[in-house]
Protein 1
Amino acid sequence: MAVSVALDVDPGIDDALALILALRSPEIRLALVTTVAGNGPLVMTTRNAVRVLDHLGAAHIPVAAGAAAPLEKPFHGALNYHGPDALGGVDVPERRTHIEARAAHDLLFNFAAAAPGERILVATGPLTNVARAFQCHEEMPSMLRELIIMGGAFGLTPFGKGNQTRYAEFNIWQDPDAAYTVFHSDVPMTIVGLDVTNDPSGAFDATDLARLRTGTSREAKLAVTLVNYAISRHEYCALHDPLALAAALDRSLFEFATGHVEVVTRDDEQRGRTFLHEGAPATSDRCIARVASGVDGPRFKRLFMSRVLEG
Ligand code: BDR
Ligand code: CA
């Protein structure tokens, strides 16, 4: 049976590609989408999530807006990478007129509490909503079957270096205080960070784009526009967030290292830096995190292609 998944996103080109992959994957049922300020301001990321879902015939999936700014630090976007609308200027209108009235963190709790131990939350933006949910509902971490995060750079591969600063990955750097809260909970956690998502073998290049262009589905066409925007400006299209989603689809795509994870919350040059203490034992306030240390990039790309090109 398909596993119920909630996606907490900040679309964002690669968040939108993760939504596309989620909607085309029979292993999961996308039950809830929550939005957070990250790649763009909250109004923009919420609008983008709605635009993508509605365009792909998924207007029935509830969308709730979450945090407009990190827990303690000021907000910084990434429009320089994702374009002025954070979605590469894609021509997709917004159809639905209402989003959920309740706050994202409460709906995330309801999602987990509806079936304790069974549901997966995938977070592909800053962790502000997840931290708020954990702060407001202390029992929530133990209710999730798993939290999968796109974030961090752990030095586990040559690609595990910062992309926002020399040390830090964007999502974690944006709200390191939220990451601290999440890392110090007992949630079963899998982290897919730059160590694998910046591995070029798992990114789309011009050859992949040409293959995507053969697709006739709405999903394929939207993916072409998004990937084309990224490639035309950055040479290749990194698939950070789809890779995190892929951990919920096929675990065998990855290798993992395990231990405690730590984050620097200080506002100095190391802000947002993440560490893995391999082999550290589980404690009452710390689970053993699994941090991706290798990926079969070509197999992942074949998975993505098959999902949007077939059927
Ligand atoms: C992460 O930062 C964002 O810009 C992307 O959407 C991704 O979630 C990569 O560091
Ligand atoms: Ca993202």
Note: The mean pLDDT is 95.
Protein 2
Amino acid sequence: MKYLSQLNKKYLNGKTCLLRLDLNIQDDELKNSLRLKRASLTINFLLKNNVKVIILSHKGRPENVSNIEHQKSKLSLKDVSKALSDVVDKKIILFENFDFKKIKKAVNDSNDKVFMLENLRFNSGEENNSKNFAKGLSFLGDFYVNDAFAVSHRENASVCAITDFLPSYAGLELEMEIKAFEKVIKNPPKPLIIILGGAKISDKIGVIKKFYSKISWVLTGGGVANTFFAAKNIPVGKSLYDKNSLTIAKEWSKSKKIIFPQDVKIENGEILDIGKKTIENYSSIIKKAKTIIWNGPMGYIENEKYQNGTVSLARAIGKSRDFSIVGGGETTSLILKKHLEKNIKFLSIGGGAMLWYLSGKKMPGLEALDKNNF
Ligand code: 3PG
């Protein structure tokens, strides 16, 4: 894989870069978004080296792209581009269609330096990994940079097919992600613990499976713990749990390495956070760990009343001296909001991609960069 950081500065001067970012950010996370913060690293690096930047991203999952009009306002990148513009302190021009000839002319004629295309998933070519769509995109720039770890598990045109047409590099953020994940995948210092929360459990079981021989404990919370409870016939009332994963959860619930909350916060028949005793127990386990992998919150952290479990564990990690990696948009934005980022050795912009990578599945976006031989 070739890294943007290793490119000769003379090569960059005066060129136009197609920069794939993952700006799939929920409106309420825009204020404390790790993805926006990290995006600024490569943008600023490129601007410093006199490169025009055309940002590519998707947002959400548009259904039936042939009938896109009514979904456009909700899934537009307009607000994201404004938020990013504030973070990098630069005007960002958003193109609302994929008329590549017009866009190229507008970029060439403009004195501005940063541009963005509208949500790529508005075009069916993106998710179909269409060569044609990728070729159209590639027409806009001189080289391509993938700085979107969070979508590198998807075989999409702006992640994979585009590398057939342009010299392609890993951006500064992606380079950090790859190096951080290498640390936990190859030889994680032990004891290794994994903390799993959030809604869905199926991808998370994949991580437990992959790391099983290396882990000492898996600490569970949120919908993950609720799913294990439901699988063990412990009543969960109206609580969120993954109904499709009860069988696999039942199998794994017998493992001695998987630890469940001893007490929880319940309101109106719903489990909304882990309780005090659980926080104490989990914190003492965290203190023994040398490596910590964490994906997904311990409770319904959208509401401030139920953030205590997640925030307390982030604090406990700060007291341990070793390597920790935390991913997932909600968890990382809460960590940033509470100014606890110094407690974590590496915050990943990946949510699903983090679980995918840790489960040992192929990452088509990384493979495409590996294969690129311009
Ligand atoms: C994410 O937010 O996890 C990525 O942008 C991937 O989105 P997707 O699951 O819709 O492909």
Note: Residues 22, 24, 61, 150-151, 154, 351-352 surround 3-phosphoglyceric acid (CB under 6 Å).
Protein 3
Amino acid sequence: MDLKFYNTLSRKKEVFQPIKKRDVGLYTCGPTVYNFAHIGNLRSYIFGDILKRTLHYNKFRVKHIMNITDVGHLTSDADTGEDKMLKGAKREKKTVYEIAEFYTKAFKEDLKSLNILPPDKWIKATDHIKDMIKLIQKLEKKGFTYNKGGNVYFDTSKFKTYGELAKLNLKSTTKSRVEKDINKKSPHDFVLWFTKSKFTEQEMKWPSSFGKGYPGWHIECSAMSIKYLGKQFDIHTGGIDHIQVHHTNEIAQSEAATGKKFVNYWLHNEFLILDKEKMAKSGSTILLKTLIDKNYDPLAYRYLCLTSHYKKPLTFSFESLDAASTALNNLKEKIKDLQQPSKPIKKESKLSKCIERFDFAVNDDLNTPEALAVVWDLLKDDSISNKEKHKTILNFDNILGLNLKEIKKEKINKKVKELIEEREQARKEKDFNKADVIRERLEKLGVILEDTKEGVKWRKKS
Ligand code: AMP
Ligand code: ZN
């Protein structure tokens, strides 16, 4: 079955073909660690996780790299404003290194709570300054840079295909006055190296042939992805806000330096929105911690994200989170039930059809809402035994990541087991009075019985 992804580069769904046969290089733009990630950011990493798990499911070996931006990301993506890390450090009266460490740890904990598989390698921008300097020097040698006002700029007019990813109309685009940098020859040009550092920490300024300073945000991702995945690799992910500037600039720098096509498939998730507003890291934000403090299971948020296709905006509300929470709890109850034996009622099993539908859904540009619908249809299907359902859903969960394998069969003690058997015998002998008395006794012991077409089922009172 073909695996298809919507590629932002071509604006089309394409069959996925990696550069090497079964090995996939995957790069995800990680967080700028100056604050907690909000649940919008986390939607982006859940999408990346579903992508990676789908690649695994299709037996690809994935090398996944995610960066931690701990320097160089300014409050405006167009090189103006303060460095976000510096802003965070001032806010908390700590050093940049201290806040980077604190928020990196918090971010990793969030990923763990959401059952997001960690990347093969975590890489920090400040550990790769030499690689960035080398890349800028290469661009300088090839004539793609100019120096102005102490900064080194990338000259976008020298890169003929600049803006293709975002389909930028270079002639008509005028950036806002606030974002205008008087040193730039074109508003699209961007900083590769800053020397007018505002950092108070001496360690946040690095010596280079362009002067003592620090790198621009975009060069970080180019230098680090090339270092770990090569000059050309398969997939790059991020939110749609990165298309216009960050990823457009990553392509320009990387391709100008290497002369090769940088990335074959660009995948971007749509935004999680709060009351029609883009969530900012300041102002009205919701963190995973906010949900946990309100007693939500983080996986209910993951479930909510799965109910919407990653290419569609998702409006967050506590009502929709409640619905996702209920659905997840119901699913867990069903998983418990599946661990009790049953015989299929209908003869012709629809199992292979269900598996085919699920595989088609996930391979069709990660259609998770349809994949979830298949799970619920499978649960209802009485042509499939509980054992087969259980095994199949746990296999599906390798993609969904709802931790369903942790849902263990509830244990009952010997006495309860004997009572259930005794009641079954009474029912067989049509002694319904005795059967009812035993049912009531079991209820007092905290065990609820349910007579179904497939036989008696029990569960513990919640
Ligand atoms: P940042 O730390 O701001 O670079 O954001 C981390 C990731 O979250 C990036 O891939 C962004 O594109 C993505 N992102 C930011 N806001 C949202 C949102 N509201 N919904 C979904 N993704 C987002
Ligand atoms: Zn990036």
Note: The two ends are 42 Å apart (CA to CA).
